[in-house]
Amino acid sequence: MELLMFMFVTVIPLISDGLIVKGPSGPLVAPLGSSVVLPCSVDELLSVEGLEVEWRKTGSETLVHLYQDGESRAEAQQQDYHNRAHFFTEEIQHKNFSLRLDDLRAEDEGLYKCTVYSQQESGETVVQIKVDNVERLLVSGSSRSISASVGEDVTLNCSVDSHIPPEDFEEVSWKKIDEDIQVLLYQNNEAHSSNERYIDRVELFTAEIPKGNFSLRLKSIRTEDKGVYMCEVFAGGLSANATVVLEQLGFSASHIMVLILCISASGSALLLCCLIYCRSPTKGLFGQQTYGQYFYLGSSVVLPCHVDECLLKKKLKVEWRRKDTKTLVHLYEDGESRSEKQHQDYQDRARFFTDDIEHGNFSLCLDNLRAEDAGEYICKVHSDLFTVTRTAETSLEPRNSK
What whole-number distance in Å separates Cα of residue 381 and Cα of residue 362? Predict the structure, then answer.
């Protein structure tokens, strides 16, 4: 197996002035060029008033990130960490002060201190990052948050560098880390969820697992699904993770209108209510915006696009195109995929999940990714029946695995 430099992350809990600040008990593994979450949390709920959280690299005392006066102060952080160090501001209410560091570099090696100040108390924890040579395990997700509305389906991306043989995957765990909930566990070639909230609502794309694609489909999302999700992969004695943030959940205007009408409706009015819901120009396409999605050369990725089942008619047409060149990546028309019409660069590389089309899933799987695949893609849905045209956009960014 190819060797690559990795980062080992060790968290050392400290007690200072009575406030206990904690992190996980064991080391984490993070490859160069990937992202890693540096844990920092407390047990007691702290008042937001006067709360300050400071992340510094010890020795040089470089300011990595600062939360102060109710907001992240990006202008105060050292330039090397601009657009690389991200604080989960919305997780403060859950006593979580963790930091995500993207695009890890060799010079990131060292000790990082998370200091929490709350009124008369303070405490800190130290995260140590070391560089070592081990067999590589590269996991990528989405670098930017995903937006969606209640009731929609979303795809949370997680892919492993394709050099890993399928038989080496020991375990893949999806967790909602802001609430410490196990969402789904893949083990012994089986995936299941033991948490009541997610039973029958989460699944992997089974056919994609041998290719290292462990993206999670979350169905009929609810307001409580909002938060930070982590995909952690264990293979060949190694582990690595990637995070995805699901945010901006809410009811669309059509949902609210339908709710009001249906409460007061009865008989034929109820039927009219349902027709309005399906005919609504803002309804029909579950199109989350997933910008800044990283990928590794040679790997696979899922570009999400879901259609309400009320639009699954014979006249439905779904196009995936490059936004810049308008190149046709893949086409669904007249009740079937029309691969003969796609651009030759995507022949045998771009495909739909045929078995999922009946459920309105028109997500695109793009295999054997190349550097020139970087860019923005649009899923456009046309329905002659309801005259609906909506788009969902995804952008891909290459990440160097060397």
Answer: 10
- Report how far apart, in Å, the C-alpha atoms of 193 and of each of 224, 321, 399 are: 17, 35, 31
Which domains, from first to last, does the chain contain? 3-135 (2.60.40.10), 139-249+284-399 (2.60.40.10), 251-283 (no CATH)
- Residues facing residue 388 across a β-bridge: 383
Burial track 86-110 (b if 16+ CB lie within 10 A, e otherwise): bbbeebbebbbbbbbbbebeeebee
DSSP string for 108-127: G-EEEEEEEEETTEEEEEEE
69-83 per-position pLDDT tens digit: 888 888 889 988 988
- DSSP E strands, 102-247: 110-118, 121-135, 139-140, 146-147, 154-156, 159-160, 169-176, 181-187, 190-192, 202-204, 216-218, 227-235, 238-247
Q: Tell me the Cα Rg of the chain.
A: 23
Q: Are 34 and 139 in contact (CB under 8 A)?
A: yes
pLDDT digits (tens, 9 = 90+) for 284-332: 444 445 555 666 667 777 887 877 666 666 577 888 998 888 899 999 8
Write out the DSSP string of 253-272. Answer: HHHHHHHHHHHH--THHHHH
pTM over 0.90: no
Backbone angles phi, psi at 81, to 5 degrees: -105, 0
User: Considering the chain, what is the average pLDDT of its residues?
Assistant: 76
